[in-house]
Every structure is written in C-alpha cells, then in structure tokens.
Design brief:
By secondary structure, the chain is of the alpha/beta class. Helix content is 44%, strand content 12%.
Length: 315
C-alpha cells in the first residue's frame, strides 16, 4: 500500500463530525461552536463535518445550519476543511442546502443516502448527481444503511465515482468485502464512518476517518491516522487498542451526540450537554457505563448520578 500524500486530500484525514452546542434554553450556541471548532483543529483535526448526524442535523432549522456553516468556516477556514452536512431525503431541499453551504464559504459537503423514501438505486444515483450539479462544492457521500434504511450498492458507488464532483465516501456500512471493491475500482477517498474500524479500513487503502470519538481523544486519533498512513502497523495497532474503550464509551451505550456532549462538558470544552428532543440526556445507569469505559482508557471524571429528569428533559 503506497503512503497517502494527505496534503492533496480535499477533506483532510482526521475529520470530526462535530456536535452542535446549544444554549441552556436550546438555541444554537454559535460562540461555543466556534470555540470547539478551534480546539479540535488545534488538537489535530484537519477536517470538520458541521450539521451531520452527531450535529443533530435533523433538529436544526435551515437558517441555523447555514449560520453554523458560516461560523465554523470563519473560525477555522484555511486551517481545516469545513464540510457541510447538506443531505436530506428531499432532493430539491438538499440542493437548496448545498447552495446555502456554498454561500457560507465551506470547502465541501457531506451528502447522506436519501432516507425513509427507500428509492431504487436509479433514484439514489439521480439524487446525488442532481446535488452535484447544483454547486461547485465537492461531495463526500455518506453511506449508512442503518439510518437510511437502504445501502448504496457497490455498482452504484462505482458509477457515482465517475462524477468529478463526487470525490469521497464516508463508509458506515461495515462491510469489508464491499469497501474493498470500492477501493479497488474507484479513485474515491474513502473514510471509515465507524470509529473502531479506522485501522482496518486504512490498511485496505482508506485515507482517514470521520469520527465522533475524536471529539474526546483527538490527539490519539491523530496519531492513529498518521501511523496508519505511514504504514507503521505496530504503532497503529497499539493506538487502536488504546482507543477501544474510548470508542465504546462514546458509541455503544447512548447516541453519539449525547455521549460526546456529556464528555465534552466534563472536559470543559462546551458549557453544557443540552440536546434537542427526541434525544434526551443519559440516565444514571447509562452514564455509569460510559464512565466505566472511560476509566478503562485512563480518563476519570466526577459526574452527577443522573442528567435526566423524570420527564425526560436534561436536569
């Protein structure tokens, strides 16, 4: 496997799918967003996804999204790639969000498989190509059948890769055989969309990861991605094992947006852990599981027994 020249990649290599900080009353906290973006870049991220799944995109209004894109582009533009989550299950709405993202000054867009509608593969192909034609922004496709209800078939992905504006794939399908075919038959920059699969995906030729856990262990993920890119398998494997309990803490007990915000608050990187319904804060039992995994990774925090009231709202 030839070493990747990361300087030529349009979306970077360590890309954190950022949470969206909220104020105590549930509004978007743009100051906290800018501060978190700067901190993540200072700690090693060279790309940030704004208004993706972890950014609670499904509960954000269109203007909030555009303002978030602009806020982060102004905060870290030129230091890291700013990637706007523009995809919806409505093609014309996705086109509008792509145009808003372009006006906000981002570097590219993350476009998810159209969800809920369950289109045919012909519909999937037409959806992405229509969005690609709407702006000059390069596209990272987001293949996540666990949320979209349908996969992007490998034959469809190969056809999409012929579009010059479709340059990357965030793969959250966790199918090594299929991602091998994509890597062998396209020039797409492939990113692991599962934090725990960063090492095996990069060993097969992926260029990096779009990560949630990198919020709370940025420097370690930076070291993992760099070691894997340099083909230093011994170092990469060691860091992979060190990160396993962190990934479990963030990704396995409660939704990633909830756990990431809880940990970021404990680290002092955001002022609160507010999420928008239908997400709710963790129960005491859920939080104890998160803290146990973090302790295994050598990260210990004081934390209240529960962050959820009886009515399901944050305490």
């Amino acid at each position: 496997m030839a070493q990747t020249d990361t300087r030529t990649l349009p979306f970077g290599t360590l890309v954190t799918a950022m949470v969206t900080p909220f104020t105590a009353d549930g509004g978007v906290d743009f100051d906290a967003t800018a501060q978190l973006a700067v901190q993540l870049v200072d700690d090693g991220c060279d790309g940030l996804v704004i208004s993706g799944t972890t950014g609670e995109t499904s509960t954000l209004e269109d203007q909030e999204k555009e303002d978030l894109f602009r806020t982060v582009a102004e905060a870290v533009g030129g230091r890291a790639k700013v990637i706007a989550g523009t995809g919806t299950n409505h093609t014309s709405h996705s086109i509008e969000m792509a145009q808003r993202a372009a006006r906000a000054g981002v570097d590219g867009q993350l476009v998810v498989t159209p969800y809920y509608n369950k289109p045919t593969q012909a519909g999937v192909l037409a959806h992405f190509e229509a969005i690609a034609a709407a702006t000059e922004l390069p596209i990272m496709i987001y293949d996540i059948p666990g949320r979209s209800s349908i996969p992007i078939q490998t034959e469809t992905m190969i056809r999409l890769a012929d579009n010059p504006k479709i340059v990357a794939l965030k793969d959250a399908k966790a199918d090594f055989a299929e991602i091998t075919r994509v890597l062998a038959n396209t020039t797409l920059d492939v990113y692991s969309g599962d934090d725990g699969l960063t090492l095996p995906w990069m060993m097969a030729g992926a260029v990096g990861v779009v990560s949630v856990s990198a919020h709370v262990a940025t420097a370690q993920f930076r070291a993992l991605v760099d070691a894997a890119a340099a083909e230093d398998v011994v170092t990469a494997r060691r860091i992979h094992f060190e990160l396993d309990p962190v990934v479990r803490a963030v990704m396995t007990h409660i939704p990633g947006a909830v756990s990431a915000k809880q940990i970021l608050k404990m680290q002092g990187l955001i002022p609160n852990a507010v999420v928008r319904l239908p997400l709710v804060g963790p129960s005491a039992v859920e939080m104890e599981a998160v803290l146990a995994d973090l302790a295994e990774a050598g990260m210990t925090f004081d934390h209240p027994r529960s962050t959820r009231r009886a009515d399901g709202l944050p305490a």
